[in-house]
Q: What sequence folds into this?
């Protein structure tokens, strides 16, 4: 970043150009120099900046002119005035240094937050730019501006905790009496489903009482006694409980109308530090209390318990809903028609997770999911599955029927065994007016509820991607906001246990991308049908790469080249690669965790029998597992 030097001309008292003062800022140079007509506006903005005086400007004559032009109210003050101000500032710094320490638990909390940021692979500045403002915003919404303002102190926090504890106790009484109006979402859900509070009131009151007990455990009444009111209201509180000399100081302080006028414009810490010379005993006692309370682990507990209270309504809502569903015949599920297919489909969410639908209406469920999580890059069937999906993605193309289509008839049921809990996406472009294809498609869709069909002409978010080669349609799963993990496969390749073992190792590795090279001819960075990725990291980059691939990969052989030219530079630094023959060409590759069986290989095609003869050759010793050098066919 270059420096932008702003030179201000001297005043009209006869100083030469060489005496001009110079101030510097670290703003970037504008792309265009300001015009003459805008000079006055820029000067006004520059005057508002905090100036940094250059060394040349620290000469006495220039400092004097700076004082007269920028601080005219202090220009006539004697030098003793500035020396006294300097002494007061140093005195405040000394008192603050003596009375404050770094809490070990606060430091540990800071470390844990930084560790979470690092794990999420986000820039460290997100702590200041997002997490801190987010915490302040949540606190302000839940508890008002007083809790979020910088002047918050342990006394204000203790009042808030006491008030919230009393509200929890009152809520428990209301719930016991049959009212849940404090929790609008619970009330709305129960009204929509004609449910009774009696089904859940015991659970809710128990939860509320547990919170009350925790608040009272960490913040007993004696930690916030009334005798400390004199610290925050020294001009109205009495000091009957103070020692005689401190009470005398408090009486004298409370009569000082000058201090009383300035009391509301400063924080408590600043106020008590500023009067340390005049009222040393009171100041020392107030600062001792502040150091003993505000900087110990109770402050951390305040933050943690505030977070607990922020999520109270959400926790109660979901626990109530899940308990109702467990207790009754209903479950967390949604049933809908498949449109052109003469059948219905039901999705069920695990009772251990929040219900993603909270409605039996398909349009409302779609609207809610799209608003909270976003749209899938497949269709409404996939969107209704909700978040945290794991997907096996295929493309089918060409004349129906073919090996691609018949291969899916074997793969789709097989995936329920090899990839339990995963769904299958099939990206296609066949005309649904084709009765033979429609019959085949509906037969699979009605039989296998984990199958989602995605028409390349009408994809949500992406629109029509049919101009790209059909081989990359399956890449549309990249960057889907509802998908956590995905693998991209060929519809004419069988699923081997060798592949499943490698995928399991990748999922537990902590890396985002996965590549498998299992043949001497697999000497490319990423094979189009044997790779996978994650949806939690690199979201912005992956969506940009997806867009480039779908726009530029136009030829039938463009899928692997598109991966090498667009995704490889990102993926290679955050991937697990399994390689059985070409590991020397790709440093960092790992051997497959299970041994080859009958010369099969991941990504094989049943009609490429000549390829299988090549895998009859022994794999290089460097590509074998270190614990199994005897695996000649690794």
A:
């Amino acid at each position: 970043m270059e420096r932008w030097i702003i030179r201000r001309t001297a005043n009209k008292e006869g100083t030469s150009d060489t005496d001009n003062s110079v101030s510097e800022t670290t703003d970037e140079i504008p792309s265009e120099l300001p015009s003459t007509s805008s000079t006055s506006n820029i000067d006004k903005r520059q005057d508002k900046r905090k100036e940094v005086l250059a060394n040349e400007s620290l000469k006495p004559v220039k400092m004097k002119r700076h004082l007269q032009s920028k601080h005219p109210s202090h220009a006539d003050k004697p030098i003793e005035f500035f020396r006294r101000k300097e002494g007061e500032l140093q005195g405040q710094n000394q008192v603050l240094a003596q009375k404050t320490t770094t809490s070990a638990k606060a430091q540990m909390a800071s470390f844990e937050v930084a560790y979470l940021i690092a794990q999420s692979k986000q820039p460290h500045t997100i702590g200041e730019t997002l997490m801190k403002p987010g915490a302040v915003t949540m606190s302000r919404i839940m508890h008002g501006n007083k809790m979020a303002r910088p002047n918050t102190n342990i006394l204000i926090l203790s009042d808030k905790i006491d008030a919230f504890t009393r509200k929890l106790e009152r809520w428990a009484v209301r719930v016991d009496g049959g009212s849940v109006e404090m929790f609008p979402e619970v009330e709305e859900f129960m009204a929509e489903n004609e449910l009774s509070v009696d089904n859940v009131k015991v659970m809710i009151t128990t939860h509320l009482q547990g919170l009350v007990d925790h608040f009272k455990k960490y913040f007993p009444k004696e930690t916030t006694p009334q005798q400390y009111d004199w610290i925050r209201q020294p001009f109205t509180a009495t000091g009957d409980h103070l020692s005689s000399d401190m009470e005398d100081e408090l009486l004298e302080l409370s009569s000082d109308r000058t201090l009383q006028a300035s009391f509301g414009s400063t924080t408590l810490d600043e106020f008590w530090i500023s009067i340390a010379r005049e009222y040393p005993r009171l100041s020392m006692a107030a600062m001792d209390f502040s150091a003993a309370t505000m900087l110990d682990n109770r402050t951390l507990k305040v933050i943690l318990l505030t977070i607990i209270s922020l999520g109270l309504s959400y926790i109660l809502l979901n626990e109530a809903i899940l308990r109702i569903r467990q207790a009754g015949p209903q479950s967390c599920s949604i049933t809908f028609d498949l449109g052109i297919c003469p059948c219905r489909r039901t999705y069920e969410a695990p009772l251990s997770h929040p219900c993603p639908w909270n409605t039996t209406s398909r349009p409302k469920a779609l609207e809610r999911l799209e608003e909270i999580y976003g749209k899938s890059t497949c269709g409404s069937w996939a969107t209704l599955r909700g978040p945290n999906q794991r997907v096996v993605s295929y493309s089918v193309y060409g004349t129906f029927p073919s090996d691609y289509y018949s291969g899916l008839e074997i793969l789709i049921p097989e995936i329920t065994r090899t990839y339990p809990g995963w769904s299958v996406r099939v990206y296609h472009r066949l005309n649904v007016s084709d009765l033979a294809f429609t019959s085949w498609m509906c037969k699979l869709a009605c039989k296998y509820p984990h199958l989602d069909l995605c028409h390349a002409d009408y994809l949500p978010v992406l629109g029509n991607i049919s101009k790209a080669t059909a081989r990359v349609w399956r890449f549309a799963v990249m960057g889907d906001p509802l998908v956590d993990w995905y693998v991209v496969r060929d519809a004419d390749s069988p699923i081997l246990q060798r592949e499943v073992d490698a995928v399991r190792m990748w999922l537990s590795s902590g890396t985002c991308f996965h590549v498998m090279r299992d043949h001497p001819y697999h000497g490319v960075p990423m094979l189009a049908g044997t790779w996978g990725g994650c949806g939690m990291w690199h979201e912005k980059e992956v969506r940009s790469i997806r867009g480039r691939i779908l726009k530029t990969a136009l030829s039938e052989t463009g899928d692997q080249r598109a991966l090498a030219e667009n995704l490889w530079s990102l993926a290679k630094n955050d991937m697990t690669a399994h390689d059985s023959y070409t590991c020397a060409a790709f440093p960092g590759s790992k051997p497959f965790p299970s041994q080859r069986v009958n010369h099969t290989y991941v990504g094989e095609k049943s009609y490429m029998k000549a390829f299988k003869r090549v895998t009859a050759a022994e794999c290089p010793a460097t590509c074998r597992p270190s614990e199994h050098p005897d695996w000649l066919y690794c």
In short: The two ends are 53 Å apart (CA to CA). The chain has a mean pLDDT of 76.
